[in-house]
Amino acid sequence: MSAEGTAVKAVGEGHSRGYYIRTVIFFAFLVFLYGPIIVIGILSFQGPQGSLMFPIREGSLIWFRDVFDPAYAGDFRLPFVRSIVLALIVMVITTLVSFLAGLAFRRGFKGSSIVFYLVIVSLIAPPFLISFGLGIGFTSLGLQSQWWSGGLGAHLTWTLPFGVLIMFAIFSRLDYSIEEAAQDQGATRWQRLRYVIIPIVAPGILAVALFGFTLSYDEFSRSSLVTGTGNTLPVEMVTVRGTAARPSLYAVGTMTTIFSLLIITGTFLSLYFLDKRRGLLTGGRVSESENYPKNPGGAAQAAE
């Protein structure tokens, strides 16, 4: 037997059958996860005579320009702006409410278990029924639901439970002794929050903000019946898909995917520099005066 054959046999004998099964399952998972994104990205570069299917007929950027053409039935400019604005509003509300909920549940209060289950229950409710119920509610009040009213409420039913759960996990790991040490040094409740709690949980706050933005930006099913006369980008894409489907839909998908990746990259870079500033990556130490005032109690008295 040749040396090459011996080497191949040695590699083959080094792994069990289960190893290969798990490897196949893992790569199949990657194909299902990223395959559609890659296919849509390729098809978005179809030529003028291209269709929604393979093969590629010439290569061009014409469908990317078509996205911004107001003459096209699916003018995605305003839906894109609405989705961005709505996602930013949802991100701010989700981050603020989740952070405050984490603080409240950390201390505990009467009826906290009931409130917790009420927050989580919207996750298991069918999204279409939530959208349908919100639409009926606005109609019963004689109001017309819009993307900034009914759409905002629908998105919050999706993002808030995730944000609260993430903040619960973050606050459960927060060491009480750190806050108590600051209290012993004379820090007020606000100073403990500003100089102790928020810097420690800041990576979690950024994670909740990212989660809230991306979930809202891509949301369709919960807002499909409550956006009113102004569709968000996902709702507009589904509408156009049924009436005037062209490769420009793929161009929109490619651009929104790149946009989402830029948002995620920016968030991870923020986390990186935040950890680096705190000395968690380099092993360095940040001076106490940089993160905390030398005498919190004295600073408070001076402010008064």
Rounded mean pLDDT is 81
**Rg on CA atoms, Å:** 26 Å
Order of helices and strands: HHHHHHHHHHHHH
Give the CA-CA distance, first to last residue. 87 Å
| Content-based structural category | mainly alpha
What percentage of amino acids are in beta strands?
A: under 5%
**Number of DSSP E strands:** 0
Question: Which residue ranges are poorly predicted, with pLDDT under 50 across at least 5 consecutive positions?
Answer: 296-304
Roughly how much helix do the residues carry, as a percent range?
A: over 70%
Number of helices: 13
Q: How would you characterize the largest beta sheet?
A: none
How would you describe this structure to a colleague?
Helix 9 runs antiparallel to helix 11. The protein has 304 residues and is an all-alpha fold. The chain is 71% helix and 0% strand.
Which SSEs are present, and which pair or pack?
Layout: H1 3-13, H2 17-43, H3 62-67, H4 77-107, H5 112-124, H6 127-140, H7 150-172, H8 176-184, H9 189-217, H10 233-243, H11 248-277, H12 288-291, H13 296-303
Helix pairs in contact: 2-11, 4-7, 4-9, 4-10, 5-7, 6-7, 7-9, 8-9, 9-11
What's this entry about, in short?
It is built from 13 helices and no strands. It has 304 residues and is mainly alpha-helical.
List descriptors.
globular, 304 residues, 13 helices, mainly alpha, 71% helix, disordered C terminus, single chain
